Amino acid sequence: MSMFLHRTYYVFRRAADGVRRRPLLHLLSLLTLVAAFMSFAGTLVTAINIDALLGRWVGSGQITVYVKEGATDSDYQRLSSAIEALQGVASTRVVTPSAARKRLVADLGDYAQTAASLPDGAFPGSIEVHLQPRASRDQTVRQEIAARIARVNLVEQVDAYDEWFDTISALSLVGRLAALGLGLLALVVSVMVVASVVRAGISARSREIEVLKLVGATRRFVEAPFLIEGASQALIAMALAVFGFELVFNYVQGMTTDVMPLIGARSLVGLAPKTMACLLGASALAGLFGARLSLSRASKV
């Protein structure tokens, strides 16, 4: 057991010596990896937020029915009951002009004074129609329900948000493709950078490697410090990237607190702990692969 601990200590000490001998090279490679990983994290979070927004809008299956000016409370109730009777409709909610003004005042936060000074007549009365899950995900069904409601005399306009859904869906696809592309790019960059650093380390420590071979060191024992060096470098870079991104994310989230309710979201969605763990694990594997790639091409090991 003591022999195993001694060998383990020696391997890790050799890995640390590799960093100590070439601090500038490791610093430059670390900064390169941090920049690549932060770019990927930013794109990934953007895609996550677009998907979350799309899920809230489509999942809620909402159609907004704007009622003509001058409608009474009884008109609102009769129209609401008639809409609820339609197939595919889950529930309705009446939003009178007064209620619409109060809701906007609550959503605007620091900018509420402007809306609070406006009269109720400046806000259109409406009925929010929430569809059943199956109907909310079927554009044809949504359009049929909207068309039936639009034929009622009390209705001024019906908004099914189809154009909004299409736009958000397109942005979601672009975000996913961008995140996938940058993820692959970050993976390739991490492998190439680590491989270059390890290759330089093998060249600089060629005499040490030859001595180890002469005294009977196994190939695995010689390679272990380089593998640890590559994996730890990528892992540390990802940890720094995640930490730096969280600082930037918290700052941006504080700036957008009052704006997010206007687009139907409470706040931005950040990286989940499981996602962070996956990113850290993937970076370590990428660093390990880069080191292994460099070792397999080296003739001195």
Main beta sheet strand tally, sense and closure: 4 strands, antiparallel
Give the strand content. 5-15%
Poorly predicted runs: none
Query: How do the strands line up in the largest sheet?
Result: 2-3-1-4
Proportion in helices: over 70%
Number of helices: 11
Distance between the termini: 27 Å
Domains, number: 2
Q: What would you note in describing this structure?
A:
- It is a single chain.
- This protein folds into 2 domains: 12-56 and 165-297, no CATH class; 59-161, Alpha-Beta Plaits (2-Layer Sandwich), CATH 3.30.70.
- The longest helix has 43 residues, at 162-204.
- The protein has 301 residues and is of the alpha+beta class.
- It has a 4-stranded antiparallel sheet.
- 72% of the residues lie in helices and 8% in strands.
- The radius of gyration is 30 Å and the shape is rod-shaped.
Looking at this protein, list some descriptive labels.
301 residues, alpha+beta, Alpha-Beta Plaits, 2 domains, 4-stranded antiparallel β-sheet
Brief rundown of the structure:
The chain has 301 residues and is of the alpha+beta class. Helices cover 72% and strands 8% of the residues. It has a 4-stranded antiparallel sheet.
Task: List the SSEs and their pairings.
Layout lengths: L1 H20 L1 H38 L1 E6 L5 H12 L4 E7 L1 H12 L3 H5 L9 E6 L1 H4 L2 H12 L4 E5 L2 H43 L1 H9 L4 H37 L17 H25 L4
Antiparallel strand pairs: 1-3, 1-4, 2-3
Helix pairs in contact: 1-10, 2-8, 2-10, 8-10, 8-11, 10-11
